[in-house]
Design a protein that fits this description.
Shape: globular
Radius of gyration: 22 Å
Helix content: 25-40%
Strand order of the largest sheet: 9-7-5-2-10-1-11-15-19-20
Distance between the termini: 28 Å
Strand content: 15-25%
Structural class: alpha/beta
Number of strands: 20
């Protein structure tokens, strides 16, 4: 069976974890294809809340083979801490397979991330300071260490010595930091982490292709979202990898023809963490209300998210960039108390109207959002189990978004629980 990709269509935090968990019931393999422990997926199952950072959401299902693909950067301590927490809550993690080609986040990546952000001052990018960017930079520079290097102590130490010689010079001469010890790092990574991670390491490309050949269902799960993509996002306020659907191929080892469904996840409004442009951002009481009702604080960092109205301009671009076949809309219930809702249908700048984002960042920073207003429903949606249970104004809102972005809305989330969703499609 061809594979399905789940991708965020905004700036992350759209609810990919919950939707991936929902789809996982029908899947045999779930692959996390990029990012690191800088992104959190929150799932509420049987009244329990699970905050996953590195593990694929499908790990909660005993019938699934969960995979951390080659496109992910892995911080060993973060991975093992997450697995220990899952095991403590009686989740079987023995099925997890980690790609030997995934790159490792090293202590110097964490240190460089922290000091670089501090050095940038008011121009800081707002990273999570988890070492993600520096690890991907080393991957591109071909000086990174990979998970498979944990299985060969001699190679690990040789690569570490080469990398650390340059990193310590930068840390000392540019940032006035003390050098890191290669021996201390090697002892911890090879002595503490390697024995526990080694049994998980495997040929994940081979596993997913064998699964395809067997007719199994494969789900590809990204972190972050379209407009945090390194190439297509609001650069430089982006992540260091490719969350878009195309990144699912490079990050998993599948080819484009192996994918036949791309499901985009969008909130019924928009949020963003950290710095960067945000045309529909609300700086008033309505924005505070969205934060309060949506519990808009980062799963990983706890940072308060910026909130704004739904942006159809961004969504249209996400449809194009990801070849979306459909959309799942989350957190519709957060809008239950609003008397009037607004949807951004275009931008305006210098007398020019934009239905998709302008390519030039200076223009994007200056655009004025143009809105359509729709009536709210002022009704609690959390007990809805079908589209027919939604009030007419809520159904009209969903229909309007689908019409604006050009692909059908198939699922609508009406609460945080695993089963709090309704099936929905254009008439």
């Amino acid at each position: 069976m061809p594979a399905t990709v789940v991708v965020g269509t905004q700036w992350g935090d759209e609810g990919k974890g919950k939707l991936t968990d929902l789809l996982a019931k029908e899947m045999d393999v779930v692959v996390r294809y990029q990012g690191g422990h800088n992104a959190g997926h929150t799932i509420v199952a049987d009244g329990e809340r699970f905050a996953l950072q590195l593990c694929p959401s499908g790990i909660l299902y005993p019938h699934i083979t969960p995979i951390i693909g080659n496109g992910v950067v892995v911080e060993p301590e973060a991975l093992l801490t997450e697995l220990d927490e899952l095991a403590r809550r009686d989740i079987d993690t023995s099925r997890l397979v980690v790609s030997g080609n995934a790159h490792l986040i090293m202590p110097y990546h964490l240190e460089l991330d922290r000091v670089t952000e501090r050095y940038l001052g008011k121009n800081a990018l707002g990273t999570t300071k988890r070492g993600i960017g520096p690890a991907y930079a080393d991957k591109a520079a071909r000086v990174g260490l990979r998970v498979q290097d944990l299985l060969d102590p001699k190679i690990f130490r040789e690569k570490l010595d080469v990398a650390l010689k340059e990193k310590n010079a930068v840390l000392a001469k540019v940032y006035n930091r003390l050098p890191l010890s290669a021996r201390d790092i090697a002892e911890r990574y090879l002595g503490e982490f390697a024995p526990r991670i080694a049994p998980m390491v495997g040929d994940t490309v081979g596993i997913v292709h064998d699964a395809l050949a067997n007719g199994d269902n494969i789900l590809l799960e990204g972190a972050q979202a379209t407009f945090l993509d390194l190439d297509h996002g609001t650069y430089p306020f982006v992540t260091s990898s490719n969350p878009v659907a195309g990144g699912a191929c490079t990050g998993s080892g599948l080819g484009p023809r192996d994918i036949d469904r791309v499901l985009g996840i969008a909130k019924a409004y928009v949020t963003r963490v950290g710095s960067g442009p945000f045309p529909t951002e609300l700086h008033d009481d309505l924005g505070d209300l969205l934060v309060e009702r949506g519990h808009e604080f980062g799963t990983v960092t706890g940072r308060r998210r910026r909130c704004g109205w739904f942006d159809a301009v961004m969504a249209r671009q996400a449809v194009r960039l990801n070849s979306l076949s459909e959309v799942a809309l989350t957190k519709l219930d957060v809008l239950d108390t609003f008397e009037t809702l607004r949807v951004c249908v275009a931008y305006e700048s210098g007398g020019v109207r934009y239905r998709i984002p302008p390519y030039h960042q200076s223009t994007l920073h200056q655009v004025t959002p143009l809105y359509e207003e729709l009536p709210g429903w002022r009704t609690d949606l959390t007990s809805a189990t079908s589209a027919a249970d939604l009030p007419p104004a809520a159904r009209d809102y969903v229909d309007f978004l689908a019409e604006q972005i050009g692909v059908p809305v198939r699922l609508v989330g009406v609460g945080p629980g695993r089963e709090q969703y309704v099936s929905f499609a254009l008439a």
